[in-house]
């Protein structure tokens, strides 16, 4: 292994070394010397698991060496060696019993520098294998150490104390109280242990109260800790079926805790949002309706973040909760309409959200509010609104159909009047100037392509080598070539908001009004 690291061929030998270590001729002194260098080469790589298992195997095969290694590691100033204490103690407890292993660990629990590693090692002891009276005695002694260690200012130790308390919460009567106190510490060292406890040590159905309180503490995790956020998201996915109310409370707590991040905060749970939309649409509609109807602007921004997630995933039809829309008063309809206009940036979402309100109402005031939203903003920006409303027309009642006809008539009259306006060409340049400009532009583009093949479009597009004249083919991941295909043109179009370009200042003021409008 020494030679491998010296020659920078570490990965070629690492797995073989781990596999062969338990029965190898490596001396305890050599192992003690090489372990820090191996961990240094590994960094934070998940392959570190292999070397820890190898040390366990080595110690299990040579308990006498394990005793020496445990003492040498504990006395060493190298913290990397301390990380292997739990592996050595696990093997020693199997070799000569749990009680002697506990006696080795006790002094370490009183040492501030070793307490974290000692706590981790405690969990390797199978105390349930002991006679009941001895198990109780050791747990009482451990509890005394935990009472002292929970007062530490070291967040690593505090997190580990929380983890150990959770593992022994049925035997230590005051454990739950201290677990919740430690959970108040907003630090990744503690928050990562909260996740571990929720995932493996506390049953949600059996201990709902403490589970809920600990879960809500994870809503304060900083989004930059992507690993822990992703693990939390996977944990929450189970709640969609079993406890959606708890999921809703967590997401609400997350939005409040990260209010300063605006719409970006909810994007940390992109996969969860998409899964909720696809598998629990009724619950999803209730959630976004509550947030849109909330008096706090942070939930309107979170709603905008949800729409952004859906749009990026090509989900264009979004509706609000029908039951709420039917039962609420027209003042709430006005409030909801304003927030939709202020925060929905896609014309697909604008149309579907407003339509979901219109089709569920039966009062004239609501009809006026929605028709005004369509005619004064949506229609004048997006011509496609006419076809959309015509397509949805058969789905609604006769009275709502009349409202749709009114909107369509106004829209068609508006665009007809635009078409009839004369083209006076007031901003048209001369033909000669246009020709010279196009020549200059073409030359600049050619020079740009020759000097560099990089560009905003080329960086996104897959480069394809033309192999056969006007035809092309490509090689797939298996190395196989596709059939020849003729080159052809492709087009992509997107409807731009017309009035937003013609009257940017006015539209910006309108959105500012809608986003800040207060409930009547």
SSE layout and pairing:
Layout lengths: L1 H5 L3 H11 L7 H15 L5 H14 L1 H13 L3 H4 L2 H12 L1 H12 L5 H8 L9 H18 L5 H13 L7 H8 L5 H14 L6 H10 L8 H12 L1 H4 L1 H14 L12 H10 L1 H12 L4 H16 L9 H6 L2 H14 L3 H12 L5 H18 L3 H8 L5 H23 L10 H21 L4 H5 L10 E2 L12 E2 L11 H5 L1 H13 L4
Antiparallel strand pairs: 1-2
Question: Can you offer a commentary on this structure?
Answer:
The chain is 67% helix and 1% strand. It has a two-stranded antiparallel sheet with strand order 1-2. The model has no long low-confidence stretch (mean pLDDT 87). Among the domains are: 222-315; 332-421 and 470-520. It is elongated and about 100 Å long. The protein contains 30 helices and two strands. The chain has helices spanning 2-6, 10-20, 28-42, 48-61, 63-75, 79-82, 85-96, 98-109, 115-122, 132-149, 155-167, 175-182, 188-201, 208-217, 226-237, 239-242, 244-257, 270-279, 281-292, 297-312, 322-327, 330-343, 347-358, 364-381, 385-392, 398-420, 431-451, 456-460, 498-502, 504-516; strands spanning 471-472, 485-486. With 520 residues, the protein is mainly α.
């Amino acid at each position: 292994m020494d030679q491998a690291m010296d020659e920078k061929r570490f990965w070629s030998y690492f797995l073989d070394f781990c596999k062969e270590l338990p029965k190898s001729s490596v001396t305890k002194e050599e192992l003690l010397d090489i372990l820090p260098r191996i961990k240094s080469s590994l960094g934070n790589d998940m392959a570190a698991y292999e070397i820890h298992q190898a040390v366990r195997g080595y110690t299990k095969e040579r308990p006498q060496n394990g005793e020496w290694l445990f003492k040498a590691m504990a006395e060493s100033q190298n913290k990397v060696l301390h990380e292997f204490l739990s592996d050595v103690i696990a093997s020693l407890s199997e070799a000569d019993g749990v009680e002697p292993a506990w006696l080795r660990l006790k002094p370490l629990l009183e040492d501030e520098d070793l307490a974290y590693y000692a706590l981790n090692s405690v969990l390797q002891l199978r105390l349930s294998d002991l006679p009941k009276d001895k198990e109780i005695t050791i747990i009482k002694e451990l509890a005394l150490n935990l009472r002292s260690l929970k007062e530490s200012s070291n967040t690593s130790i505090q997190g580990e104390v929380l983890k150990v308390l959770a593992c022994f919460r049925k035997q230590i009567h005051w454990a739950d109280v201290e677990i919740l106190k430690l959970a108040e510490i907003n630090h990744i060292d503690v928050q990562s242990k909260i996740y571990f406890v929720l995932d493996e040590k506390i049953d949600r159905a059996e201990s709902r109260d403490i589970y809920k309180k600990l879960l809500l503490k994870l809503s304060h995790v900083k989004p930059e800790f992507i690993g822990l956020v992703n693990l939390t998201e996977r944990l929450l996915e189970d709640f969609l079926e079993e406890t959606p109310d708890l999921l809703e409370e967590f997401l609400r707590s997350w939005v409040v805790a990260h209010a300063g991040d605006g719409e970006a905060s909810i994007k940390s749970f992109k996969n969860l949002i998409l899964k909720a939309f696809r598998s629990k649409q009724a619950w999803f509609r209730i959630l976004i309706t509550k947030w849109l109807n909330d008096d706090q602007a942070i939930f309107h921004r979170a709603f905008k973040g949800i729409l952004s997630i859906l749009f990026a995933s090509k989900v264009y039809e979004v509706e609000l909760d029908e039951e709420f829309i039917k039962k609420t008063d027209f003042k709430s309809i006005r409030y909801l309409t304003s927030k939709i206009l202020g925060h929905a940036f896609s014309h697909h979402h604008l149309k579907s959200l407003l339509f979901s309100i219109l089709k569920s109402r039966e009062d004239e005031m609501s009809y006026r509010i929605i028709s005004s939203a369509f005619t004064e903003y949506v229609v004048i920006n997006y011509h496609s609104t006419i076809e959309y409303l015509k397509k949805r027309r058969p789905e609604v009642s006769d009275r709502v159909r009349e409202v749709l006809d009114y909107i369509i008539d106004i829209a068609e009259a508006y665009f007809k009047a635009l078409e009839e306006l004369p083209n006076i060409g007031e901003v048209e340049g001369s033909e000669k100037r246009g020709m010279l400009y196009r020549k200059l532009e073409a030359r600049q583009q050619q020079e740009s392509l020759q000097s560099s093949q990089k560009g905003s479009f080329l960086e996104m597009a897959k480069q394809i080598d033309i192999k056969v004249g006007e035809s092309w083919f490509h090689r797939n991941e298996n190395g196989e070539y596709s059939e020849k295909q003729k080159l052809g043109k492709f087009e992509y179009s997107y409807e731009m908001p017309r009035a937003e370009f013609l009257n940017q200042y006015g539209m910006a003021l309108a959105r500012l009004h809608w986003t800040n409008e207060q409930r009547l």
